Each structure stands twice: as C-alpha cells, then as structure tokens.
Amino acid sequence: MNAPDASPDTAAPEAAPPAPRNNNKGRRRGGNSAKAAGAERKVHPLLEKLAALYPKLFGARFLPLQRGVYEELLARHPEELPADELKVALGLHARSGRYLQAIAERLPRHGLDGQVVEPVAPEHVHHAIVELYRRRQARTPNEDLRPKLVARLAEAIEASGLDRAAYTEQVRVSRPEALLLLDEAFAEHGRRVARREALQRAFEASGQPTLEAFAEMYGMDLDETRRLLAQAKASAGPKNS
C-alpha cells in the first residue's frame, strides 16, 4: 500500500491568498471559530507516539521527512503503528502549519535516524509558501499579505537555481490566479537581480579600495551591501530569469 508522501504536495497547490476584505460576520462568529480551532488543535494519538519515538522529527520542531516515510515507519513499528491510522496521522502532520513552515524554509528532508537525505523539491517549497500565506490571509482578511508572499516566492525562485521555464514546469500551476502570482514573483526576482548587478557595477566603478569605504561613501548599510554583493557574485553565471 502506498500512502501520500508526508509533504505539502496536496496542500491546495494552486491556491492564492484571498483578497483582503472587511468581514464583520467573521467577527461575530469568533466564539464558534475559536471552539472549532481548539478542536482542530487536538493532537492525533499516533502523532504523540511518533513524537515520543522520533522527537527530532515530530517533537517541538518539525523537520521535512524522507520520501517513503510511511512504509519505513510501518516496517519498523508494525504493531505500534496501525497502517490506516498512520496514514491519517501523517496526512495531518504534512498539512500542519509547523510542517509547512519547515518546507517553506527549505530545510532538507531527513530520515528516521535523523540523517539528511535530500533537499526539498522547489515545487514543494513553492506550494508550502502559498498555502501558509493563504491561511494567514484568511486569519487577517483586512491586511494585504500578497506583497510579502511575492517577496517570499522570489526568494524561493532564487534558491531553486532554476530558470523561468524549468521552475514553472516543476510547480505545475495552471489556474489564472496562480499563474499571475508566479508572474509577479518572477518580476520581483528580476528586480532583485538587476538591483544587485547595478550595485556590483557601481562598486567596481567607484574606485573605492574597500567595501567599507564604498558603503560609507553612499551612506549604505555595510552588512546589507556585503550581502547584496555576495549574492551578485554568486549569481554571476547563467541568469535565473
């Protein structure tokens, strides 16, 4: 039996944060919403058992899990972890905010013994970021989180090392709103690359002997200038957008 991977692949991959709106009805239903949230926060018994068995993976801090973790857990604990209940528990775990956050932060996948096994795929990072912001926007409907979402996706695009065609193919989005979000993220990524390249050219043309002198001349923050120039140097090869 093959269970879905413990990853955010199925977490509304093409969803985007809803537009901010004034929702007085939501405020009036706040009491019921709080009760529902409390019920949802109840931990599945098997997740408590997994936290006891593997505290570094399921404990206070979640880490992305290796592919095939369901089969591996069944093989190791056939009596302690009933197959059907384990499938449900892992599904809840993979959709939890803390697990999605670990994916969004691009932490590597780990095996049950705590070893790093592989990076998280760019499409999983992308969908985790979108889903997290969708949930946050739903909780704060009067605040427009889209600019922060676009900035976060631009960082993910940068980290992926993929060009536009390869990245778009991997994330597999087709809905107009999801494609528009991707366009905005690539536009932001392009602006960041151009800004870094312009800074690199300015530094080379300044005649200043040190980065410190360059930053002081233009009244720039030294640490930020150093970070941007290091990124410019790292991406001096093939362009990502």
Short description:
The protein is mainly α and 241 residues long.
Count of individual beta strands: 2
The assigned structural class equals mainly alpha
Please, what is the oligomeric state? single chain
Count of DSSP H/I helices: 13
> Could you report the average pLDDT, rounded to the nearest whole number?
83
> Major sheet: size, sense and barrel closure?
2 strands, antiparallel
Order of helices and strands: HHHHHHHEEHHHHHH
Shape: elongated
Strand content: under 5%
Radius of gyration: 22 Å
Poorly predicted runs of 5 or more residues = 1-15, 25-30, 36-40
What percent of the residues sit in helical stretches (DSSP H or I)? 55-70%
Describe the structure.
Helix content is 63%, strand content 2%. The longest helix is centred in the last third of the chain and has 31 residues. The chain has 13 helices and two strands. The N terminus is likely disordered. It has 241 residues and is mainly α. Strands 1-2 form a two-stranded antiparallel sheet.
For the structure shown, list the relevant keywords.
241 residues, mainly alpha, 2 strands, 2% strand, disordered N terminus
